[in-house]
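<derive_structure_tokens>
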Amino acid sequence: MVTTLSVKYERSNNSFIFLESLCLYFAVEFRRSVLPHLSHTPRLMGITFGIEKGELIPVTMLGLQEYVGRAINVACRLQTALKDKGSSPAYNALVSDSVYREYFAQTEPHRVSKATRNLRNINNGAEFVCRRFWLLRPYRSTEDDPS
């Protein structure tokens, strides 16, 4: 039992650290490689994630391997739903409750809150239970700062 919990905690913690590291990498590289070439600085920048787990079906379209399945639809809807409820979506993730319980619940939850969203064409319009992760503080332009 201890080994199982230890492995789950390590996997959970590693998954969270991976997402935070990916956000940090994006933030640094965007500022270093992209921002200097823009004619104006966007007011808010960052990446977002929608995360779900499930079976995917491989299909070939136009000679290319593609995947379809409910998990992709839910993950995309979760990512889009980050813009709901008014706060900044930058460097945030919405994770299905089942994925949270399996992969993240064993971590010491910091910057995680329970959330519900109505996802288009998912769950027959009923609220979908998920968790919101704040992975990194968003970079805000100081050009619009009145102070």
Helices lie at 2-34, 70-81, 97-104. Residues 2-140 form one domain. The first strand starts at residue 44 and ends at 45. Confidence is low (pLDDT under 50) at residues 1-9, 143-147.
